[in-house]
Each structure stands twice: as structure tokens, then as C-alpha cells.
Queue: 2 jobs
Job 1
Amino acid sequence: MEYVLKTENITKVYGQHKVVNRVSMHVKKGAIYGFIGKNGAGKTTFMRMVAGLAAPTEGTMELFGSTELEKQRKRIGTLIENPGVYANMTARENLEVIRKNFGITEKQAVDDMLEFVGLSDTNKKKVKNFSMGMKQRLGIAISLFCNPDFLILDEPINGLDPEGIKEIRELLLKLNREKGITILISSHILGELSKIATHYGIIREGVLVEEFPASDLEDRCRRCHKLIVDNTELAANILENKLHINNFDVPKQGVIRVFDHFETMEQINREFILNGVNIKESYLSGQDLEGYFMELLGGGVND
């Protein structure tokens, strides 16, 4: 399996605080990897380490299957935090600066990039007068000028209006599908992220707690009778051998999800209690994407 990014136990410590704690991430070639976490969870710090803007305290990293990171980072485009643009210049003038810095002799490259990101009609309008969405598209244009194979975007749709969000979403899908660019993107707008992501990574307090393909989401969010118990093994045995219920799973220790027999919830609870299983919680659960992620994150995304 070919990975564009693979990390093992990447850690970043500032003072006594582990901002990123032993993160092992796997971003497949061609993926749009949605990186989700609360503010301060470590997303930006992790992205900065991948881009070479910060050095890990511990851990190892591979880019495109290689540990020659500086060489491979030439294949990465980044938009981390605010776009680095000249506010008193036009979009064209900004891209001309980038073209010359990269030593690209073909002047048509600027026109092509403006057309690609939908900024060809901005003419003499200065960047300081751009909408937030236009500024983000210009930032993405700058990150694309090195013709990257891997694009790292930190909150590119944060603060945008619905039209701006739609424009960025369509642009990212175009980059992924037409140019084959792998994308690592963080966002708080989970509903929008679900429209483009092929894989997800969930970070909480610096720890990558989940990593899974988008194809798993329907199963993870489907309706179930959820029980929080003190003895998972005994509870599973009761379901199978006493109640003859097999359509359940154990997503983690202490949690059981039963996917049918909703009409027998009282019977299930009673059998558990009679057979020595302490039930801490018992309820019907069926979440949308945001509800599922909030549960993993331990509350609201922006708490």
C-alpha cells in the first residue's frame, strides 16, 4: 500500500506540555484525509511538522515512502494558518512574485493558475479588498505553484460564507480528481468535510484516537442500543448464549452496541443485572456525522 505520509509516534513537546503525543498517521496516495479535532488539539502543530516548519521532539516520518524529508517536501504545497499574500497587490501580481521565485519562465502559468482557481476576473482588484473565500483561493493557488503531489490545508473553509465554502469544496475535489493530488485537510465544518473526505483522523489532546476510511461512517453512525458496562466479555456472552443476539459489536472495552432487538431493551438490561453485569448507561443511539465526531472528541468540536 502506497502512502504519501506515514508517521510513527510523532511527538512535539513545548515546555512540559505534549502538544502532539505519539501520533501515527497514514495518508494514502490519492486520499482526501479529513483531520478533525478541537481547537488546541494539535492539528496545526502536526501539520507544521509535516511541512518542515517545526521539528518533532520524537518519532519518525516518511514522505512518499522516503525518509529524505527535505527532498520530498519539495513535492508538498501548504496553506497553514493565514495565506502569505501581499495585501496591496492584485492576485496576478502576487502570483507573478511566486512564479519568479520558483524560476518559472512561462508567464502563461499565472493566467492558467488564476483560471484554475476562479480568480481570472479579479483584474486590478487588490487582495485587501478580496472576500475571505477569494483570499483562500489565492492561498491555494500559491501552494499549487510548485505543482505539488501532496497538499496540506489547515482550516481552509473556516470563516467562509456558504458560497465561499462551496467554491473551495469544488476546487479541492477538482484538484484531487483531475490532478490526482493527495490532500490533508483540517476543518471544524464536519458536514462539509464529509462531502469530500475519503479518510478521517481524529485527534484529541494531542493523541490520534481514531483513523478510518469514510466508507466506515455509515456503520459507525447507524442506529443501535448502546450499553456502557463494567464487564464487556460477560455481557457479550449473555447476549450470545442467553438471549441469542448476535448482531452486536464491541467498539472498545466497556461499550457494546446492539443493532437490532430494540424492543427487548428492558430484557437485555434485566439479564445483564441478574447475571452480574453493572450497567453504567443504556440508551438508543443513532447519530449523524457531527454527533459521532462530537462523541469521539468528548464534546463540541470547538469546546
Note: The CA atoms of residues 21 and 172 lie 29 Å apart.
Job 2
Amino acid sequence: MDLSWTTFAGIALGIGLAAATGFRVFLPLLIAGLAAHFGYIPLSENFQWLASIPALVMLGTAAAAEVLAYYIPGVDHALDVMASPATLVAGAVASAAVMTDLPPSILWPVAIIGGSGIAGLTKGSSALIRAKTGLMTGGLGNPVVSTAETIGATGLSLFAIALPLVALALIVVLLFWVVRKTGRFFFGRRKVDAIAAPRER
């Protein structure tokens, strides 16, 4: 299969939307559905329902409920745990819905591995930041994290629709930063524990 410009742009759009579902499950799907409904992006044949009025109403209701729930202390952490499987599904759906030029034999492996994978990485990084912020601020900083996640989901979705290739490049940079920060968080703490252990003996 030859990768044309539109095919690669569709893959980039799908990965961008999938990454956004790691911040909020329903909001990127709602934005993609609205964009398709008004003719800004095409949808794969099996995902035309995403642009229908009933689907948009349900996604809008679910997105509003999800955004508000993350501002309730304690519920935000519970949602991080419960939403993880849904995030993987949403990442696959969001990416598969817009990769219109790929045959099914290639579409679904890319959507499941790439879409779900990037959604899981984004979700894991945001959950880690929320947990760290909660420990450092006693939970007072969590609304700030929730706001940043909502803005990130909205901005990344819109950016992926407008400039998919640029959005893909930014996602790569973001993931590199997250991996470095996560490594320092875990391995840095291990180094501190290793240094302190001989002194305690």
C-alpha cells in the first residue's frame, strides 16, 4: 500500500485524537463527531454514526458529566482507575474513525496498537501527575490538573483536526518529556532510597 499525503494525514489525525482521549474519554470523540457533522473531516464507513445527532447528544452529555466529575475530590482518582479501560477503547475508536484511506487489515492493527497505546500513555502520564500533585498539595491542586487536562483534550483534538502532522510531532515531543519525567520520578527515588539505606543500618 502506498502512503499518500492524505493517508499519512489521516493516521496523524487518528493518533492525535487518540492521544486526546487519554485526557478525557468522550470530549475528543464529541469534537471529532462535530467536525465530521459539519464537513471538516471525513469518517470511515463504519463510523458514520459518530456524526449523527443522537450520538452527538449522548457524547455531549457524557463529556459534560466527565468534565464536571473530575472536579469532585476523591471521584477524580476513582475515575482515573475506572476510565483506563474505556480510554483504550476510545483511543482505538477515535483513530479508526478517521483513518479513511486504510484497508481493514491495516486499519485495526494501527488503531489498536497505535491508538490504544498512545491513549494509554497519555492517560498514565496524566494520572501520575494528578497523584503527585495530590500528594504535594493535599488535593488542593487537583482542580488545576483537571482544568489542564480538559484544555489539553480540547486543544489537542482541535489541533489534530487543523494541523494533524504538526500535532503528531508535538505528541512525540510530549511523550519524550513524559517518559523522562516518569523515569526520574521512579528511578530518581530509588537512587535516593539506595543512598539512604546504608545510613540506616
Note: Residues 192-201 have pLDDT under 50 and may be disordered.
